[in-house]
Q: What sequence folds into this?
């Protein structure tokens, strides 16, 4: 190994040690490049009223895997006020390409897999909740945030990769 290659290797190791120190000390840098791991979101994306029921979509967290594919973990929650309607059918989002993500560079990623009620239709009856996920192909490794869109509802939520757990 020549001295130039050794210097490059030392610089890469120093950068890696710096990142490890930042992670182990629970110090997070806003808008830093994407690292694999779980990012906590815990925000409502929307709440929609239908007759005497409401349905909400909450985004809990996002997983960024080693290959930079991503998975968004969601819960749909219904609440019921007594009246005529006590049932809402949520249709499958498996082929719904109005739900997608964009990174901070504007690259769009459609989901390649769905699970739970993102995959199946689900009938909410009264006060109820059900989970589902959206899996996306690998995203740009330099991304510092993504925005998850639900164009059917006209809503979106931005997830910054500075909230890693």
A:
């Amino acid at each position: 190994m020549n001295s130039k290659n050794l210097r490059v290797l030392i610089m890469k190791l120093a950068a890696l040690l710096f990142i490890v120190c930042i992670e182990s000390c629970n110090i997070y840098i806003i808008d830093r490049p994407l690292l694999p791991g779980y990012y906590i979101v815990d925000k409502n994306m929307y709440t929609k009223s239908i007759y005497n029921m409401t349905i909400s979509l909450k985004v809990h967290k996002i997983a960024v895997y080693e290959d930079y594919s991503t998975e968004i973990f969601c819960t749909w929650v219904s609440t019921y006020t007594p009246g005529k309607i006590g049932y809402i059918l949520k249709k499958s989002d498996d082929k719904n390409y109005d739900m997608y993500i964009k990174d901070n560079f504007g690259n769009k990623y459609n989901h390649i897999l769905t699970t739970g009620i993102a995959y199946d239709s689900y009938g909410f009856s009264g006060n109820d909740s059900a989970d589902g996920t959206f899996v996306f192909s690998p995203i740009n490794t330099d991304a510092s945030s993504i925005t998850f869109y639900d164009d059917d509802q006209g809503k979106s939520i931005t997830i910054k990769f500075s909230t890693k757990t």
Confidence is low (pLDDT under 50) at residues 14-31.
